[in-house]
Amino acid sequence: MSLDEYPKLKTSVPGQYLGYGLQPVRLCYYLMSVANGCRVSLEQLDDIAIHDASGGLIFEQSKSALSGNPASDRSAELWKTLSNWASLPTSLFNSAIVFRYYVTPLKIGDLVRDLHDANDADKAALLLKKFKTKTFKGKKGVGVEPLITKFLDAGDEVCLKVIRLFELRTEKDPIDAIRKKLLVTLPEESLDQFCAAAIGMAKTDVESLIRKKKAPILDAVAFRGKLRAFIRKHDFSKLLVPAAGEPAQNQIADLLSRQPTFVRQLAAVEASDTLLTTAVSDFLRTMADKVAWADIGNIVDSSLDELDQSLVRHHTMTSDELADTHGHLDPPRWGRQLYRRCADLKMPLEGQTLPSYFVAGEYNCLADDRRVGWHPDHKSLFPPEAA
Prior knowledge:
Blueprint: H1 22-33, E1 39-42, E2 48-51, E3 57-64, H2 76-86, H3 90-93, E4 96-104, H4 110-117, H5 121-131, H6 134-137, H7 145-152, H8 156-165, E5 166-170, H9 174-183, H10 191-211, E6 217-219, H11 220-233, H12 249-258, H13 261-267, H14 273-296, H15 301-325, H16 331-343, H17 358-368, H18 378-381
Parallel strand pairs: 3-4, 4-5
Antiparallel strand pairs: 1-2, 1-6, 2-3
């Protein structure tokens, strides 16, 4: 039976995972981890299912425990999972080799511990006998009793197999397992970027299949080849990682209201509000990056001096070119042309790729120090002694 012919289970509807983050993370982890020949599906047979080359299936229910404890003895999520596994179609149930219950962050309960340990016939039989007692099941129709009853209604043979094949996995952070896979070959400072890229790649690939109404299953070998190609193309080990995210609007507004020199330099060429806001954001992020990179040893201070010298030289050459080719423009338009050409410059620092905003931000740092300017008369409008 091909995967496309498998029955769609009521508990697994392709597309529902799009509002959640955990399943794509687990999908990515397995695609990076399973043996060659395995495939991994999402929201087809279970939250995650691993299909080995011999036809065996590992079913995984992935539970986020940010609130509540899905590993507790009377957890409705736990008992719903057990009853759903016991209700699997025979063709799938007979192929099961593990029923995995994954919980993050770390959670535990007596029952899941007992289930995890009941991997032989005697232990499984004792546990099943316990489930059948009135004391364990509780009052009819109350709490998880209906789910326990549904599980038991599947029959002893089925229940015993679910118990024997039950496996609990719980960990603090699901991303850590992916980080460890990447840490062998990548620098630690770029791990989060590559983790995000890998998860996004897995998520995008499976979403594409869902949109095409195809079975949401990915081949692990093909995914790993694609990921390796991505790593070769985007060598984040040569990328200086931003030290901070975009500044808040109130931070930008506060700096604009104080009218530092670089803002007044842009105002002198009648920069738009959008350009001013972007310039302030670039300036703040660049200032934060320079301090952070120097502190952690990603760059040496002299490299920034060398970069500044190159930027000043580019500003001089571009200004001279514009004087020849755009001398007919009025000073504000001429100045905006100069700023855009300088801000769009791509230049590395110590052979490392800079974030897209950094050169523009550094130019604004230079403008704040009056080492460059955008108006043709910036030296007289903003003389050094006015600093």
